[in-house]
């Protein structure tokens, strides 16, 4: 070959590489935009369950550790994601010349810690796209690896949790890098590969304590490394590096009560039949494989495209294995074993635990995407082999990607729109609807209604409510009076805090409603309030005794089932696939109803 032809060939290869890089950067940017869109949804009125640890750690870090918490739950939480959240600039508006902030500025300030936490999670989650591409390259060509990366970029499940102040979506990036490190150890076995694997493992553990599960693929990689022999001793170096990397992200404070208390919650409680470790409780009775339904429902509700393509891929694998007995179904079988050493135990553990949460599947999305891309590559190969079917090869790839993108963009659109709680609050801010000087309203808890409260109403609402669970309430009771908005509303929570109150209300809801000294009552449809009949009884009494003046639904045309579109984990009674639901939804939030009581203002 001539020098000119060689240079032309090298230039062509370099051009293709730059094209791959450009497409990968574009996919990562698109994923970031989707995840960041509407990241402040429902704040500060409603916060994600179990989402308070990350903002609390961010607040502690910004205090310089001057007031460290010594609670066991905080002691076990790693701080890598919180450290990244510190880099996110605050969007808190500043007032000029001591002027009171507007209502919107005060609401924004109260949600600042959670919005910054969500921003960090969204940014870190987007980096799963290039990480998944690099893992896919061990099994697929660069083109099909980009298809896998595109599925990750438009992943509905990852996007659903990436806009929340919970670290799972962010930790997925480091988990994927740890699997990539294990693959490098198996494929290359060099000291550099072991060091990279150790760093990635340390970051994974520093992001989320469940990152210790990444020891399994690393162990398989070391045992099956192509170099073997003495290079396996490099595994000790990888573990040492992992410990050194992860250690700074865990608190050095001894929990309250000292190590004696720590020891008392690590072990097995014979009375309750629970395994306990640093605040985590695992009832043995929940290990009944009831989680298999949760896993299946979550996968189908959030990733229907990947589930269909994954099923086709497994079918194609079976056909290939049956048509060629004795031949491996997938190339690089040992690399597959490394990946399966992580995916298999994760799926088994999630299926075995009946109380498993949907977000436990987030770290597995890259591997579902790779499997789907591999299945498409097999189907495309079959289509290209038939001249009449070649025109369907492109549609075969573009159709599922377009559907996935439609789900993702719809979720971004819905979360960017004003939620139902904000729309209900805006109704009261309109003078033609509500006279804030003379009228009063009550709200069904636990929604922290986004209106500034009068001092009297704030004292009623804050009675017995712990600090840290309601950012808007915390902001109002902790802010200097001069920094509060001038506009104030008499907004109080209905008295449903104690079991005794709820039992009394459930016994005679009409009497409770008749005794209310307010002009309006705002109720909502949330699963958490349906655990006691008093909440439904109050709404029934309002339907009989009051006038429904306005209703706000997250769904176009209303929601017959009154299922919230918020941050709760999917429940078995969800009648609609979530990915399909957002295609036709208007906003996030629960169904909100405003009732006016037949009461004269001058009757007080």
What does this protein structure show overall?
The chain is mostly helical and 604 residues long. Helix content is 54%, strand content 6%. It is built from 26 helices and eight strands. It has helices at 3-36, 53-62, 72-75, 80-85, 103-110, 112-126, 128-136, 142-153, 156-162, 168-187, 191-207, 215-223, 234-246, 258-264, 291-302, 304-323, 333-352, 365-384, 391-416, 420-429, 455-461, 471-478, 499-507, 509-514, 533-545, 578-582, and strands spanning 267-269, 274-277, 280-283, 440-443, 490-493, 520-524, 547-552, 592-596. The strands form two sheets. The protein has a five-stranded mixed beta sheet with strand order 5-4-6-8-7. Strands 1-2-3 form a three-stranded antiparallel beta sheet, with no helix packed on it. Strand 2 and strand 3 form a beta hairpin. Helix 10 runs antiparallel to helix 11 and helix 18 (365-384) runs antiparallel to helix 19 (391-416). The termini are far apart.
Primary descriptors:
single chain, 5-stranded mixed β-sheet, 26 helices, mainly alpha, 604 residues, 54% helix
Write the layout of secondary structure elements.
Blueprint: H1 3-36, H2 53-62, H3 72-75, H4 80-85, H5 103-110, H6 112-126, H7 128-136, H8 142-153, H9 156-162, H10 168-187, H11 191-207, H12 215-223, H13 234-246, H14 258-264, E1 267-269, E2 274-277, E3 280-283, H15 291-302, H16 304-323, H17 333-352, H18 365-384, H19 391-416, H20 420-429, E4 440-443, H21 455-461, H22 471-478, E5 490-493, H23 499-507, H24 509-514, E6 520-524, H25 533-545, E7 547-552, H26 578-582, E8 592-596
Parallel strand pairs: 4-5, 4-6
Antiparallel strand pairs: 1-2, 2-3, 6-8, 7-8
Helix pairs in contact: 1-6, 1-7, 1-8, 1-9, 2-6, 5-22, 6-10, 7-8, 7-10, 8-18, 10-11, 10-12, 10-17, 11-13, 12-17, 15-16, 15-17, 16-18, 18-19, 23-25
């Amino acid at each position: 070959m001539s020098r000119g032809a060689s240079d032309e060939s090298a230039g062509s290869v370099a051009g293709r590489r730059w094209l791959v890089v450009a497409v990968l950067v574009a996919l990562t940017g698109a994923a970031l935009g989707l995840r960041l869109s509407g990241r402040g949804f429902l704040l500060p009125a409603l916060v994600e369950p179990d989402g308070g640890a990350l903002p609390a750690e961010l607040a502690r870090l910004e205090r310089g550790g001057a007031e460290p918490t010594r609670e066991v739950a905080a002691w076990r939480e790693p701080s890598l994601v919180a450290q990244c959240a510190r880099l996110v600039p605050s969007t808190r508006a500043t007032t000029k010349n001591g002027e009171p902030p507007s209502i919107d500025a005060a609401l924004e300030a109260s949600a600042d810690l959670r919005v910054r936490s969500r921003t960090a999670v969204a940014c870190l989650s987007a980096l799963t796209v290039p990480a998944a591409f690099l893992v896919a390259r061990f099994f697929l060509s660069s083109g099909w690896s980009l298809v896998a990366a595109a599925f990750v970029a438009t992943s509905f499940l990852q996007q659903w949790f990436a806009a929340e102040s919970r670290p799972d979506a962010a930790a997925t990036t480091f988990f994927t890098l740890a699997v990539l490190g294990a693959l490098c150890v198996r494929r290359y076995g060099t000291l550099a590969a072991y060091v990279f694997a150790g760093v990635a493992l340390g970051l994974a553990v520093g992001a989320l304590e469940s990152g210790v599960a990444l020891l399994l693929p690393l162990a398989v990689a070391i045992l099956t490394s192509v170099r073997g022999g003495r290079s396996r001793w490099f595994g000790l170096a990888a573990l040492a590096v992992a410990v050194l990397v992860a250690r700074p992200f865990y608190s050095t404070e001894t929990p309250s009560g000292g190590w004696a208390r720590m020891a008392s919650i690590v072990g097995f409680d014979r009375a309750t039949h629970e395994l306990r470790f640093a605040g985590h409780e695992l009832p043995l009775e929940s290990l009944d494989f009831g989680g298999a339904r949760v896993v299946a429902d979550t996968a189908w509700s959030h990733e229907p495209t990947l589930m269909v393509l994954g099923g086709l891929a497994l079918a194609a694998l079976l056909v290939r294995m049956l048509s060629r007995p004795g031949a491996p179904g997938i190339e690089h079988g040992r690399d597959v074993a490394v990946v399966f050493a992580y995916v298999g135990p994760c799926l088994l553990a999630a299926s075995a635990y009946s109380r498993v949460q949907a977000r436990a599947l987030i770290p597995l999305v890259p591997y579902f995407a790779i499997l789907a891309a591999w299945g498409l590559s097999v189907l495309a190969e079959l289509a290209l082999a038939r001249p009449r079917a070649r025109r369907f090869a492109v549609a075969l790839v573009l159709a599922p990607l377009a559907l996935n993108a439609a789900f993702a963009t719809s979720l971004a659109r819905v979360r960017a729109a004003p939620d139902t709680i904000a729309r209900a609050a805006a109704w009261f801010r309109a003078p033609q609807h509500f006279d804030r000087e003379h009228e009063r309203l009550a709200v069904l808890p636990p929604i922290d209604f986004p209106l500034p409260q009068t001092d009297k109403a704030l004292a009623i609402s804050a009675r017995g409510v712990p600090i840290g669970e309601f950012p808007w309430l915390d902001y109002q009771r902790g802010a200097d009076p001069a920094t509060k908005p001038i506009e104030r509303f008499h907004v109080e929570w209905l008295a449903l805090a104690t079991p005794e109150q709820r039992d009394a209300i459930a016994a005679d809801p009409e009497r409770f409603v008749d005794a209310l000294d307010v002009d309006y009552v705002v109720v909502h449809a949330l699963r958490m309030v349906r655990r006691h009949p008093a909440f439904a009884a109050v709404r029934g009494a309002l339907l009989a005794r009051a006038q429904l003046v306005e209703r706000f639904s997250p769904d176009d045309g209303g929601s017959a089932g009154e299922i919230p579109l918020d941050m709760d984990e999917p429940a078995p009674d969800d009648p609609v696939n979530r990915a399909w639901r957002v295609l036709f939804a208007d906003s996030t939030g629960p169904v909100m109803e405003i009732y006016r009581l037949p009461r004269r203002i001058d009757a007080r």
